[in-house]
Amino acid sequence: MSERFTVLVLGASARAAASAAALAGWNPIAADLFADRDLAELCPTIRIGEYPRGFLRAVEERAAQAWIYTGGLENHSRLLARLAARLPLWGNAGGSLRRVRNPWRFAAALRAAGLNAPQLLPP
């Protein structure tokens, strides 16, 4: 029998990822904007009042082996880097997100791979 990991699931809405984590055999702890009743019935749940900075407290106060994030937090790459410095992240950290979200870098990578990319114009 394998060890059950406790994973902290952070995001504007953590329901889907927390459900998937539970189905995978992990012990999720969810932190999101809503802390809905069905999520709280599935796992320990934290309602984040100060979005997105409230996730710092959730990471500091909860015992988990790692954390993952859901939609919305990818817009806060510096915060993700701060969170990843406190607890191992299972996913793309802040630096990776900043690189892939740069349209010029992304288009150059597509072209280098021999793929078409749209022409980009400076703002």
Structural overview:
α1 (15-23) links the parallel β1 and β2 (27-32). The mean pLDDT is 92. This protein starts with 5 loop residues before the first strand and ends in an 11-residue tail after the last helix. Helix content is 41%, strand content 15%. It has helices spanning 15-23, 37-42, 54-61, 77-86, 94-100, 103-112, and strands spanning 6-10, 27-32, 45-47, 66-69. By secondary structure, the protein is an alpha/beta fold. The radius of gyration is 17 Å and the shape is elongated. It has a four-stranded parallel beta sheet with strand order 3-2-1-4, with helices on both faces.
Task: List the keywords.
123 residues; 15% strand; four-stranded parallel beta sheet
Envelope shape: elongated
Strand order of the largest sheet: 3-2-1-4
Low-pLDDT residue spans = none
Give the biggest sheet: 4 strands, parallel
Rg = 17 Å
Structural class, from helix and strand content? Answer: alpha/beta
Helix proportion range: 40-55%
